[in-house]
Write a structure and sequence with these properties.
This protein has 10 helices and 11 strands. With about 270 residues, it is α/β, with parallel strands linked by helices. It is elongated and about 60 Å long. The relative contact order is 0.15.
């Protein structure tokens, strides 16, 4: 990248820089023509602290991984965060203080934590989505259409599978799918969701939306919404074979925020599907 191009590039910091998603994001930033790595964060005690953030690629970025939030964000205009809720909230507060825009792919937030993110969006621009994949967000639109047509006579179940290291369940994407379907058919997911079945459960309540969770191996992310009727089943499925789709979606979110000083946005805004 020329010095002129570098000066106009989107300056991005990555949270969780030594993790699986963090490394995928760093690689995407390094490979894009209009982005530059400006910071790399990791937790205190990480063995990666002090190392070059792009060393795993056999490259030298000049950016060293740090646990000091202000040091890691001082040269950045954007932070991409796929970590955990407590870490993301800590990053959010410093981003708000420094005027750094935020792309949040973290899932598992409580309602109170979501409210704090909403409040911070008065001062900085934020894209928050449970899944940054373009394909998943197209599927969400398809689900809304399907649910409206299949709201009577079809039982709705959501099945998701992820790798053994994922700590929250159901996944944020599965919950978002449930919210989209529930909204489309005039239900409140908090009132109609069933997250587990065991023992003598009785006949299925047709007003419910069921969730089933699988954890194992290195599954990147599989999601299926099943509309089960009498005599037929409709399944809408998305399967991820690589985290690269999440990374590319995150960079689209960065570009979307380039001229937005504040506000809270979703991937439907980024993709022009809102």
């Amino acid at each position: 990248m020329t010095s002129t191009a570098q000066a106009s590039a989107h300056r991005i910091a990555i949270a969780g820089a030594s993790g699986r998603m963090g490394r995928m994001l760093i690689e995407a930033v390094q490979n894009a023509d209009d982005t530059v790595l400006a910071g790399a964060l990791d937790i205190e005690g990480s063995p990666a602290l002090g190392t070059d953030a792009a060393a795993f690629l056999g490259q030298t970025s000049g950016v060293h991984i740090t646990s000091d939030l202000r040091a890691g964000l001082k040269d950045a205009k954007y932070l991409i965060d796929f970590t955990r809720p407590e870490g993301t909230l800590a990053h959010l507060r410093v981003c708000r203080e420094l005027g750094v825009n935020l792309i949040i792919g973290t899932t598992g937030f409580t309602d109170e934590q979501k409210a704090e993110i909403q409040d911070a969006a008065r001062d900085i621009a934020i894209v928050m989505a449970p899944n940054m994949s373009v394909g998943v967000n197209v599927v969400l639109k398809l689900l809304a259409q399907a649910a409206k047509a299949l709201k009577e006579g079809y039982d709705i179940e959501i099945i998701e599978a992820h790798h053994r290291h994922k700590v929250d369940a159901p996944s944020g994407t599965a919950l978002k799918m449930g919210e989209v379907v529930a909204d489309a058919i005039g239900r409140d997911l908090k009132e109609c969701a069933v997250y587990g079945r065991e023992g003598v459960t009785g006949e299925r309540d047709p007003s419910t939306i069921g969730f089933a969770t699988v954890r194992g191996g290195d599954i990147v992310g599989d999601h299926t919404v099943l509309f089960a009727g009498i005599g037929e089943r409709i399944e809408i499925t998305h399967k991820s074979s690589s985290r690269a789709t999440y990374a590319q979606g995150s960079l689209r979110a960065v570009r979307f925020l380039a001229h937005r000083p504040h506000g809270l946005f979703g991937m439907d805004d980024v993709l022009g599907m809102a």
